[in-house]
C-alpha cells in the first residue's frame, strides 16, 4: 500500500488522525517507536487488563486503539524515525534495517518529553523521572516501591494516586510549591475545563486520605548515595533543612514539547513563555510553516490527551481538504465540535502553567550539578564558558560538547539555555532553539549505508 499520509507517533493525536484520514479515503502509514500503539498516555492500554489502578482516563485510550483496525491504515511498530527530508521522504529504521517512505502529507505527533530536573545527585542510580516510572507501571506492571516523589505538577499527584491505588504508596511527596496567587486571576478562564481541576483536587484528596506526608515549598534539592545503595534526599522548607532516605527518588517538573524532528526539518518555532520552551509555529488546524507538514498534540504545545485527540482530528480534516478528498464546507462543519472540545480542554492550561511555574533554581542549578549527562559537564563549567564568550548553544557545543552526546540535548538543552541566560542577562527566548541535525536518533553506519543501495520501499 502506497502512503498518502505518514503519521509519526501513535499516541492519542496520531490514532485519532489516522482513523479520520482513513475514513476519508486516505491511505495512512502510522509509524511509532513502541511495540504497541498508545503513546505515553495510553501506553500498552490494549494489554493492561487487571491494572484498574491506572484510572478511568487511561482506559479511555482503548477505544482509539480499536478504531485503528481499518484496511487503509498500515501500522509500523518499532519504527524509529531519524530523518525527515522533503526530497528523500521519511527515513526510519527497525531492527537495524533502514526504510524510506514517501507521502504527499506528513503529520508529526511525537508528543512531549519530561522537563529535566537537574540538581546535585540527579544522575545517581535510584533517581529517575516520574514519567519513566509510569512507563514501567503501564508497560510491565512494575510498581515503584520505597519511593519519594519530588517536584511539582499534576503528573506528580496522578502517579502518587496510582501508586496508592496499586497498594504501593509513596513514602512522601516533596513539593516545590504552587503559585496560586499568581494563578487565581486565570481561574475564571479555566471554568470550561473545571472537570480537570476537580479531578486534580480528587487526586490530592486521595493522597491526604492515605496519610502520605507532604513537604511544601521545598528548595535546594540534593541527593547522595549511601553505602547500602539507598538514596539520602535532602531539601529545605520553611521548617529548615530536612533529610529523608529512600530506595527510589522520582522527580517531575512538568513536560515540554518534543521538537527534535520538527526542528531538524527547519520548521519555524516560537518561544512559549508560559511553558518556558520552544514549540512549532502552527495555524488553528495544525499546519506548520511547510504546507504539507502538520503537527498535533503535545509536540506542538502542552495540552494533554484530550487536547491531543482533538488536534489530531483537526489536522486530519485539514489534510483531507488539502488532498481534495473533502470540501471546505464539510471540513469546517466537522471541525467545529473538535474546536469546541479543544477550547474547553485548553481553557485550564493558563491556570495550570501559572500555578506550577518552574523554580529558577532548576533552570540554572548549583555549580556542582551535572547538567550534560552524556558528557558529564557541570553547571560551573557552563557558567565559566558563558563568561568566556560562549553565549549561544552552538558556541557552547563547540567549547564543551553539550548536547552532542547520545541524547542530543534532550536532557540538557533547556538547562544550558537557562545558564546562558543567567550569565548574559538575556531572556531564554533569545538563546534558542538549538539547531538539530540528523540523524535525530543514534543509528549505525550499516543503516546509513543501506540507504544508498536499497530501492525506495512502498509503505
UniProtKB/TrEMBL annotation:
The keyword Transmembrane helix does not apply. Residues 371-450 form the SoxA A3 domain. InterPro entries: BFD-like_2Fe2S-bd_dom_sf, FAD/NAD-bd_sf, FAD/NAD-binding_dom, Metab_Enz_Cyan_OpOx_G3PDH, Opine_Oxase_asu/HCN_bsu, SoxA_A3. SUPFAM superfamilies: FAD/NAD(P)-binding domain. Keywords: Oxidoreductase. Residues 4-312 form the FAD/NAD(P)-binding domain. One of its GO terms (molecular function) is oxidoreductase activity. Pfam families: Pyr_redox_2 (PF07992), SO_alpha_A3 (PF17806). PANTHER family: ANAEROBIC GLYCEROL-3-PHOSPHATE DEHYDROGENASE SUBUNIT B. This is Opine oxidase subunit A. It comes from Pleodorina starrii. The gene is PLESTB003006.
Amino acid at each position: 500500500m502506497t502512503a498518502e499520509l505518514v503519521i509519526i507517533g501513535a499516541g492519542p493525536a496520531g490514532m485519532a488522525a489516522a482513523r479520520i484520514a482513513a475514513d476519508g479515503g486516505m491511505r495512512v502509514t502510522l509509524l511509532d517507536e513502541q511495540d504497541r500503539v498508545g503513546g505515553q498516555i495510553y501506553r500498552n492500554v490494549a494489554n493492561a487488563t487487571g491494572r484498574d489502578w491506572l484510572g478511568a482516563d487511561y482506559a479511555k485510550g482503548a477505544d482509539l486503539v480499536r478504531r485503528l483496525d481499518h484496511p487503509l491504515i498500515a501500522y509500523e511498530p518499532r519504527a524509529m524515525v531519524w530523518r525527515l527530508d522533503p526530497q528523500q521522504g521519511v527515513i526510519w529504521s527497525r531492527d537495524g534495517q533502514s526504510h524510506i517512505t514517501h507521502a504527499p502529507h506528513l503529520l508529526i505527533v511525537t508528543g512531549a518529553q519530561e522537563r529535566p530536573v537537574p540538581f546535585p545527585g540527579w544522575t545517581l542510580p535510584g533517581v529517575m523521572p516520574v514519567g519513566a516510572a509510569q512507563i514501567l507501571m503501564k508497560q510491565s506492571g512494575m510498581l515503584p516501591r520505597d519511593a519519594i516523589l519530588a517536584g511539582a505538577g499534576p503528573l506528580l499527584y496522578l502517579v502518587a494516586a496510582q501508586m496508592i491505588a496499586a497498594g504501593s504508596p509513596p513514602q512522601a511527596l516533596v513539593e516545590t510549591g504552587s503559585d496560586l496567587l499568581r494563578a487565581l486571576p486565570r481561574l475564571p478562564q479555566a471554568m470550561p475545563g473545571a472537570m480537570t481541576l476537580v479531578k486534580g483536587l480528587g487526586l490530592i484528596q486521595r493522597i491526604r486520605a492515605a496519610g502520605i506526608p507532604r513537604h511544601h515549598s521545598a528548595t535546594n534539592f540534593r541527593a547522595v548515595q549511601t553505602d547500602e545503595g539507598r538514596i539520602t534526599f535532602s531539601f529545605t522548607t520553611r521548617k529548615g533543612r530536612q533529610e529523608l532516605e529512600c530506595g527510589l527518588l522520582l522527580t517531575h517538573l512538568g513536560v515540554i514539547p518534543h521538537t527534535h524532528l520538527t526542528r531538524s526539518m527547519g520548521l519555524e518555532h516560537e518561544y512559549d513563555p508560559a511553558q518556558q520552551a520552544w514549540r512549532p509555529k502552527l495555524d488553528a488546524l495544525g499546519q506548520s510553516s511547510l504546507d504539507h507538514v502538520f503537527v498535533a498534540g503535545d509536540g506542538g504545545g502542552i495540552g494533554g490527551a484530550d487536547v491531543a485527540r482533538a488536534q489530531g482530528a483537526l489536522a486530519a480534516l485539514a489534510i483531507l481538504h488539502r488532498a481534495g478528498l473533502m470540501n471546505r464546507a464539510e471540513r469546517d462543519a466537522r471541525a467545529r465540535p473538535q474546536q469546541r472540545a479543544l477550547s474547553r480542554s485548553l481553557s485550564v492550561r493558563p491556570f495550570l502553567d501559572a500555578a506550577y511555574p518552574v523554580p529558577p533554581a532548576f533552570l540554572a542549578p548549583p555549580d556542582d550539578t551535572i547538567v550534560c549527562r552524556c558528557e558529564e559537564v557541570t553547571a560551573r563549567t557552563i557558567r565559566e564558558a558563558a563568561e568566556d564568550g560562549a553565549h549561544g548553544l552552538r558556541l557552547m557545543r563547540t567549547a564543551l560538547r553539550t548536547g552532542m552526546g547520545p541524547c542530543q540535548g534532550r536532557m540538557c538543552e533547556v538547562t544550558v539555555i537557562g545558564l546562558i541566560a543567567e550569565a548574559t542577562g538575556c531572556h531564554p527566548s533569545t538563546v534558542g532553539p538549538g539547531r538539530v541535525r540528523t540523524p535525530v536518533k543514534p543509528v549505525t553506519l550499516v543503516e546509513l549505508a543501506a540507504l544508498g543501495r536499497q530501492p525506495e520501499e512502498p509503505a
